[in-house]
Design brief:
single chain; 269 residues; mainly alpha; two-stranded antiparallel sheet; 8 helices; 6 strands
């Protein structure tokens, strides 16, 4: 499996990604050590809860790394432009910034300095990368797993005081034990911010996918009817994820391949 890496040299963007990673580390290391693991050792929570929490954390991290380093669909400097088929040539246009031919619905990213096929937007806050045809499915996975991990973190934070049984053996000499309430409040606040931010982002992304309209096209007030009618959610997600196998939609460690006969096949770009 060959995964092409794509890194954007933007210090501000990597600072934002570093802050997201810091929140992930804080909640992934702190919450299990204060809540999940002690209650598991005393038999208050099942082992499946521990495994599920760490699985969600691992998938969230994998989606973040893959979305941040995956090629979003950058056009090569010498794309293969159809010469004989006039119908296919009509699907190409000239970029007025880099003066290269590109497929329609591509967009020139001023931060990255190149055109991206079916670019949705450039995201400096979460992945420091463009969201385009080849990594849109990874960005969607990041939204899903961040929502899941934030929800589980909030459950543990609030369950520590309102639902779970009191611990019989609670060490009092450690820093985390002495400041448990303050640490869990910070965890709950970060979980609420992540959950709220990703909820709105996930909604807008799904609305765009189902209506076949990118964020850039919405900002430019393009009508979705320019590009096709509203599709079923299965066919829309299958095209974005590059497979009709629904289980593979949730796996970040794979390479996307455009569907045969799909609207955005780029085998000859």
């Amino acid at each position: 499996m060959r995964l092409r890496l794509h890194v954007v040299a933007d210090p501000v963007g990597w600072l934002c990604v570093g802050l997201v990673l810091a929140v992930w580390l804080y909640n992934t290391l702190l919450v299990p050590s204060l809540v999940l693991l002690p209650h598991y050792r005393e038999g208050h929570v099942p082992g499946a809860a521990v495994a599920g929490y760490y699985a969600a954390a691992a998938l969230c991290l994998a989606a973040l790394i893959r979305a941040s380093t995956a090629d979003p669909g950058r056009l090569p400097p010498d794309p293969h432009i159809p010469q004989s088929d006039n119908a296919e040539r009509q699907d190409w246009e000239l970029c007025n910034k880099c003066n290269l031919m590109r497929p329609k619905r591509s967009h020139h990213c001023s931060r990255c300095g190149h055109c991206v096929r079916r670019m949705d937007h450039h995201c400096p806050w979460w992945i420091n990368n463009c969201v385009g045809e080849d990594n849109h499915w990874l960005f969607l996975q990041l939204c899903v797993y961040t929502l899941l991990l934030s929800f589980l973190t909030l459950l543990l934070d609030f369950g520590q005081y309102y639902y779970l049984q009191p611990l019989s053996a609670r060490p009092q000499d450690g820093f985390a034990s002495r400041h448990e309430l303050a640490l869990l409040r910070v965890s709950a606040l970060s979980g609420l911010l992540m959950f709220g931010g990703m909820s709105g982002l996930f909604y807008t992304q799904m609305a765009g996918i189902l209506s076949d309209t990118t964020t850039i096209e919405k900002m430019a007030q393009f009508s979705s009817q320019m590009f096709g009618s509203r599709r079923s959610w299965q066919s829309a997600l299958a095209e974005v994820c590059g497979t009709r196998w629904k289980l593979l939609w949730l796996l970040p460690l794979r390479r996307r391949q455009p569907l045969q006969g799909g609207r955005y096949s780029h085998a000859h770009v």
